[in-house]
Design a protein that fits this description.
Layout (H helix, E strand, L loop, with lengths): L2 H14 L5 E2 L2 H7 L8 H6 L7 E3 L4 H14 L3 E4 L16 E4 L13 E5 L4 H8 L4 E3 L11 H7 L6 H4 L8 E7 L7 E5 L15 E11 L3 E8 L2 H12 L6 E7 L19 E8 L6 H7 L2 E8 H7 L10 H9 L3 E3 L2 E2 L5 H12 L3 E2 L1 E6 L5 E5 L2 E3 L3 H13 L3 E2 L17 H10 L11 H4 L17
Parallel strand pairs: 2-4, 3-4
Antiparallel strand pairs: 1-2, 5-9, 6-9, 7-8, 7-9, 10-12, 10-13, 11-12, 11-17, 14-19, 15-18, 15-20, 16-19, 17-18
Length: about 475
């Protein structure tokens, strides 16, 4: 469908649904059609001219259903938008269409015994505001938790704060079920339990409209946020590794930053020197006493310490220097930087980190996040900063990592399979065919849809017996 056909279809839809909350002004539509894909100079160039034709903000399922019906009738693409904190162009429309702002879906249920159900547009920080008084908190959330929505995390996220204990969001037991709407002429509402629910996870909203997510929660602790510094990188790494691998230390977050990354944290610069490496940790108050022994052993020094309650009060959490917030802080200082996403081997990640740091020197600067993998192993993932020179050189760097048995989850591509998934998964495509038979949800992002006729697809991939 070309732009003129889309304009005509949009005019007919808006005429039929005038009471919906529409945004049609081109500059506002373009702004709302953006996420943080500009972290990648490659995606920034590729997606520069991509945007929706209009934005609509439904207030309830009935309004959303009307939009879905209209898009199916006119064969117009539909793309879902949450807090727009993604990094791969997840929400950027490739073929125009209607961008659906889901932030009106923000109802959060009362937490049960370690469980909460919330609508897709609920901001993660708001979920914790509801659950914390009941003694529960999120198991996994990104550093953008104040802006990010639950649906956005589910559709395009991976891990984050809490993954040192519970692994990434997709680890068994973290997500219990989802509620979805189908992209059909007569939309259906389906409740999908785990593990089938995970077939919609990290699919960029391309194979189903997620309305609600049911999450397992973690017990609340009185957390202490720390930033500790080291003169030697190997000392910082060994401190973080010992911290990560001490099962009795109750922790929520652990990250390592090689110099000069801490200098990009401009609000903290007065607490340490430019040459020093840093470890940010979030540790339970009852476990913090063991930090002094670890610091002494690995020749570290405390630079910043605050309680999580103080951080919330002042809106200055150290967690917002971790994960891909690190890249954002760095880009504010040096716009020539970009980043990688690497997954080290859990059996020898320490040596891999040292080897890759020595191999690239200042061209690739270590930012390491410690977490558990889906099998429960303590491991490390890199969100290294890269001094960008060219796309060719960036690809060479990624090849070198792979040649050294370090997995790359390429953050410089917008195709789902080219990034984290790594391969075409017929079961994910089967879900799209089942829930979005016309292929209207976020078209162009799922490579498997383009070759679906060559795949063996399941007619009922979600194994639903009660519809």
């Amino acid at each position: 469908m070309d732009s003129e056909q889309r304009k005509l279809a949009l005019a007919l839809i808006q005429q039929a649904l005038p009471d919906l909350d529409w945004t049609l002004q081109a500059t506002k539509v373009k702004r709302l059609s953006r996420d943080f894909h500009w972290f990648s100079p490659i995606l920034k160039q590729q997606l520069e001219d991509k945007q929706a034709d209009a934005v609509v903000r439904p207030r309830n399922e009935e309004e959303l259903s009307l939009v879905v019906k209209a898009c199916v009738q006119h064969q117009l693409p539909l793309i879902l938008r949450g807090g727009a904190t993604g990094n791969y162009g997840q929400l950027v429309p490739l073929q125009g269409g209607i961008l659906v702002d889901m932030t009106g879906f923000n109802q959060i249920g009362e937490p049960g015994n370690g469980v909460v159900r919330a609508q897709a547009g609920s901001r993660l920080a708001e979920i914790e505001t509801i659950t914390r008084p009941a003694g529960w908190e999120l198991r996994c959330m990104p550093s953008t938790y104040r802006l990010a929505t639950l649906g956005g995390l589910y559709g395009g996220g991976f891990g984050g704060i809490g993954s040192i204990n519970y692994g990434p969001l997709g680890a068994p037991g973290n997500v219990l079920s989802v509620k979805v709407m189908t992209m059909e002429a007569e939309p259906r509402i389906l409740h999908i339990p785990a593990p089938q629910a995970l077939l919609l996870h990290h699919a960029y909203g391309s194979n189903g409209i997620v309305l609600e997510v049911e999450l397992a929660l973690a017990p609340v602790h009185q957390w202490i946020e720390r930033l500790d510094v080291f003169d030697d990188f190997s000392d910082a790494l060994d401190y973080a590794n010992a911290f990560a691998r001490s099962p009795g230390l109750v922790k929520r977050q652990l990250a390592l930053f090689a110099a000069p990354i801490p200098t990009y944290f401009t609000h903290l610069n007065g607490h340490y020197q430019a040459h020093q490496h840093a470890v940010i940790s979030v540790i339970a108050e009852e476990s913090e006493g063991f930090c002094s022994n670890l610091l002494e052993k690995y020749r570290g020094h405390s630079a910043v310490r605050q309680s999580a309650a103080e951080a919330r009060e002042a809106n200055t959490s150290l967690m917002e220097y971790c994960w891909n917030h690190t890249t954002l802080h760095a880009l504010k200082i040096d716009s020539s930087l970009t980043y990688l996403q690497t997954a080290f081997n859990y059996t020898n990640y320490r040596q891999q980190i040292i080897d890759m740091a020595a191999l690239f020197g200042d061209e690739v600067i270590s930012h390491i996040e410690f977490l558990r993998d889906n099998d429960g192993n303590i491991t490390a993932s890199g969100l290294q900063l890269v001094r960008y020179s060219s796309e060719e050189r960036l690809n060479e760097i990624m090849v070198t990592f792979r040649d050294n048995d370090v997995k790359i989850n390429n953050p410089h591509v917008y195709k789902i399979e080219d990034g984290k998934q790594g391969e075409i998964k017929s079961e994910v495509v089967s879900v799209k065919k089942y829930l979005d038979p016309n292929g209207l949800l976020n078209p162009g992002k799922l490579s498997g849809w383009e070759v679906r006729d060559t795949l063996v697809l399941n007619n009922d991939p979600l194994l639903l017996t009660d519809r």
